[in-house]
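quick one
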Amino acid sequence: MQLTLWTYEGPPHIGAMRVATGMKGLHFVLHAPQGDTYADLLFTMIERRAERPPVTYTTFQARDLGTDTAEVFKDAARAAYERHHPRAIIVGASCTAELIQDDPGGLAKTLGLPCPVIPLELSAYSRKENWGAAETLYRLARGLAGERRERPARARPLANLLGPTALGFRHRDDIIEITKLLNALGVDVNVTAPMGATPDDLTRLGDADFNVVLYPEVALPAAQYLEKAHGQPYTKTVPIGIGATRDFIAEVRKIANLPETAELPTSNLPWWSRSVDSTYLTGKRVFIFGDGTHVLAAERIAREEIGFDVVGLGTYSREFAREVRERAKLHNIEALITDDYLDVEKAIADAHPELVLGTQMERHISKRLRLPCAVISAPTHVQDFPARYAPQMGFEGANVIFDSWVHPLMMGLEEHLLGMFREDSEFHEHASHLGVSSAPAPAPIPTAAEQPVAAAPTAAAASSPVEPQWTDEATKELKKIPFFVRGKARGNTEKYARERGLTTISVGTLYDAKAHYGR
Amino acid sequence: MNESVSIRPHGDGPAVHHERGQRSVFCGLTGIVWLHRKIQDAFFLVVGSRTCAHLIQSAAGVMIFAEPRFATAILDQRDLAGLADVHDELDSVVGRLLERRPDIKLLFLVGSCPSEVIKIDLVRAAQRLNAKHAPKARVISYSGSGIEKTFTEGEDACLAALVPTLPAEPATAAPSLMVVGALADIVEDQFAGLFKDMGVDARFLPARRADAMPAVGPNTRFILAQPFLAETARALEARGARRIAAPYPLGAEGTTLWLKAAAETFDVPAEKFEAAIAPGLARAQMTLARQREKLGGKTIFFFPDSQLEIPLARFLAREVGMKPVDVSTPYLHRALMAEELAMLPAETRLNEGSDVDAQLDRVREKRPDITVCGLGLANPLEAEGLTTKWAIELLFTPIQGYDQAGDLAELFTRPLARRSRLEV
Ligand code: SF4
Ligand code: SF4
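structure w/ iron/sulfur cluster:
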């Protein structure tokens, strides 16, 4: 029994729903109590889908339990076929139905529906959402891809794109970006699955020469199966970031035997990152958390492409624990493998990062800790299913990533500057670029003690009941510090004094604090 | 609006169709989302699966990060295989929880489908834990499972479980008024004020704090502020209290009739009653007149959701001139709905139960001006060119009483106004 408030992943049948909802012509008959239909709203609201997910729930109730929930299931499956005429059906049980031990697969078989019926074992009490999606795609590939067949030699090789699903973080645009990239390399896309594919498309999976694994969380078991059964190699590099995209291109060229002649798109990231405006990004302390794929990609971008210091690295995807641990070693830190957001919150607070890259939860944690944050991984909320084109993969993805990571920092810096300027009379809130303003005279400039402490607003108050007082000399000394770092110096000094229970801040304290916080 | 309406009208209202099929509704766990905000020192611990945790997280949205007072004890393989004694596990989870949150005075163990199917006896668990933690924290259980409870029935189950723990009012006590059903604090305060002006001292169930729950006894008269409280009403009657029958306080007319039913029970003189309600009633009528211009003559279709559908349809029909063409409710408690049914336009098609596919067929055929439905249906219906109002907002927004009557109508005006603005 685990006490849980917030979960990074839903139960496995949500993963199956993500596969079914991404596809067309596939229907999911889910043995589940009324109430489990809440899951529809993830797709209709967060992803803003204009159709209901292709899921029929049996919605059994207590009064059905005594009699025959198996009949309820059969009726629902029959009705679903009649109404939707799908090309294939998947059947499975949610956590409650798993307990009542009806066998959806066996029951569906007895109905003799005129389309393939693929049963799923979803293990609701030991597995989670991503596993459910991966298992579903694997079962579909196994069930529909057919026998291995001869592939003709082609001028342009064919690849499948595996892994994008409904409710995936930027999956919609990653498909477009990678399809463009492959086309530029001289590769055509055979089937993209599950997103956008029909069951009939899945019967053509075997025609491709190789598979591109976009999201290993979802696609790996299917890709491994296809390698064994159809002799298709698959790509191991996920093309998120400049370096990874270049490696991915090299990998594809090798697998598909392509010359290095193609003209490829470029990215602004390398120059943006080298331009002097980005110097202040150097060594910024960044904390990274999310699913395995996006965390590993973000770590490399942070390290090699933007020049951050990684002070925290972790994932809720246990399947990626080993790789994430390896990467953490590069930074002399311990990887955080957990699905408890309270652990993550604590780790973030302890690491004192200047930027957090994470999921929706880290966004909230950062808000609470007043840290800049950008979202890099599911689970996300509605604002991370944007209307505009916003891939993470490929060269355009790198542009998007640069902007979205740096943006909150710029904001952070601006805010900081504004906070400091507030005390300089020419920056009072009524000042205007149009010259003398008609606005009322500025309010008196607050004294140091009244100023909000920028650096550590929360930690502060608790440690000492008395606010440390600045001596006159120390105040004078503070004024000598350039205005753009003065606010930070004051905040740090007061924090330093408070933590040590000092009641007065002398010139010495000011420099002790500077030495303490300096790096 | 019409003052002359009889308070206990005759006639049963429209005929009722019964439907059975796929249901697209929340389970009773969802009630936690608003109940935990109402009872400020209570904690709701769901004993369930990852699905239950995911449901609450999806329904609670932002609140999940406001240090909420709810959580899920997720059953895992070890619990199911009997490797771990579920009761020992639960005791230790609760122990740790209460240690971490000493501010918690009332702990609800909330049953789910999984806990019910494997027959974890939460009633016994609550008794055992109560013996251990009372009086610091009391422990009560109820079921919010989808196999038992539809959406707002979760609140009913919660309040019904509270009733046996309410203090006993002595048989000699003066008659007292209890208002039953969680209301937004602002609405509760308005009602308390109105009753006070009539000389009636009203108490509310649930109270805002665990130690302030109202007493109950044979002289208690209670009035339901929400229509979905059948089990709670029975539990109160089992303790000798008597129910005051009334329509529900939605709209100016609904609020007036509701207040009047209580006032009559307490023999409030007519002038005193009129004086108390006059300002609020006038304000409500004024705001509703404006909404009537926008909503009059428009057709409306209700998918089943909260049991608020019938009172809402009645309000919209009588006070702003809408035409409810098809109204579904997950359950219809005839006795609790008698006053409402009598006021519902006779031509309304009324359904109890759910068959979402059949309802979708009807909504497409009737193409109403507004469809009230859940979040899983709203965007797909909008994409088909229908205007929708998502139903769950009606539970999270203060809608009862005079000063909310205009806001309530406005919830239906806004989607129409939006549709007429957009040119793309
Ligand atoms: S319907 Fe049952 S299993 Fe599903 S979330 Fe509600 S209580 Fe949990
Ligand atoms: S973004 Fe945050 S606040 Fe908004 S709904 Fe999602 S979880 Fe809630």
